[in-house]
Design goal:
0% strand, mainly alpha, 2 helices, 38 residues
């Protein structure tokens, strides 16, 4: 129910673009978190 009301875009789960985007987004978030604690 929350997803149906608050999601911004629909990304297909079987798309290579989605998986690549998720990988780089996760990597960026990890990097920013790591930089924030220094």
């Amino acid at each position: 129910m929350v997803y149906e009301r608050l999601h911004i875009i629909d990304l297909p789960k079987d798309s290579a673009f989605t998986w690549i985007l998720c990988f780089f987004t996760q990597d960026l978030v990890y990097y920013l978190g790591h930089r924030a604690v220094h």
